[in-house]
Amino acid sequence: MDQGIRTIGILGAGRVGTAVAREALKAGYEVRIATAKPVEEIELIVEIITPGAVAVAAADAASSDLVVLAVPLHRYSTLDAAALSGRVVVDAMNYWEPTDGAMPEMQAGRGTSEMVQDFLSGSSVVKTLNHIGYHDLESDGRRAGAPDRRALAVAGDDESARAVVLGFVEALGYDAVDAGPLAAGRAFEPGTEIFAGAHDAAGLGEALGRAAAGATAPAAV
Ligand SMILES: NC(=O)c1ccc[n+]([C@@H]2O[C@H](COP(=O)([O-])OP(=O)(O)OC[C@H]3O[C@@H](n4cnc5c(N)ncnc54)[C@H](OP(=O)(O)O)[C@@H]3O)[C@@H](O)[C@H]2O)c1
Asked: What phi and psi, each to the nearest 5 degrees, are found at residue 101?
């Protein structure tokens, strides 16, 4: 743990939200977890599947030192942008057509986290944790320096927010690789080489480099 981050608020108590909650608890954070439902409706399930985490209302989760978005992407506009204003917000969401359906506001050539950042204009959105399966998140973490430690990419426009999230990802047991601005997160969305595989830090850095070179390469004539 570092950078004064003690409390992690998680919006979404599904597969990803509960996996992140358990890993964050193991790392020593205080974890608050919320859905769109009233607290009373999730208290028991949170106690059973994420023992040690506290079920709270979404507004209380949003007031944590770091907030993780683990809701289906098509629900992003139901998030309380005012409550999340001023917060560092980890976007772990992906567009998944069978669940999300058509989302006309998504723009070709733009990442979904950029769309989320537009909506959460007062927050510092940082993209990561979207390119690891929820099962893997609980099995692939290793202590720092382990030879088989997996790496995860971190992208966000606010450098200090990115630094906070790099520290969080490291605390969860992964080498955190700084990918730069939020737009660089397009390189680890579904359908990309990075999304499809597991990488160590060197391999991930190279894959990010290839993606950046591809993004800036002049169009073939
Ligand atoms: N499955 C994976 O391995 C994986 C890996 C990385 C990233 N992702 C991405 O992570 C996101 C979550 O996936 P998932 O599989 O965990 O989904 P899920 O199992 O369907 O869980 C979604 C959770 O979000 C809650 N929710 C919906 N609207 C909310 C709101 N406004 N505020 C707070 N909570 C809200 C739901 O609760 P209520 O509806 O009851 O409120 C539910 O607890 C998706 O975008 C997915 O693409 C998935």
From this structure: 65, -160
Q: Ligand 1 pocket: which of 71, 90, 97 to mutate (most atoms <8 Å of CB)?
A: 71
**Residue 75 Cβ contacting ligand 1 at under 6 Å:** yes
How far, in Å, CA of 62 to CA of 120, rounded? 12
Residue type, 15: R
Q: Which domains occur in the chain, in start order? A: 7-216 (3.40.50.720)
DSSP state of 120: T
Please, are residues 130 and 179 in contact by the beta-carbon 8 Å criterion?
no
The ligand 1 atom at the shortest distance from the C-alpha of residue 42 is 40
5-52: per-residue pLDDT in tens? 999 999 999 999 999 999 999 999 999 999 999 999 999 999 999 999
Is 1's pLDDT higher than 70? no
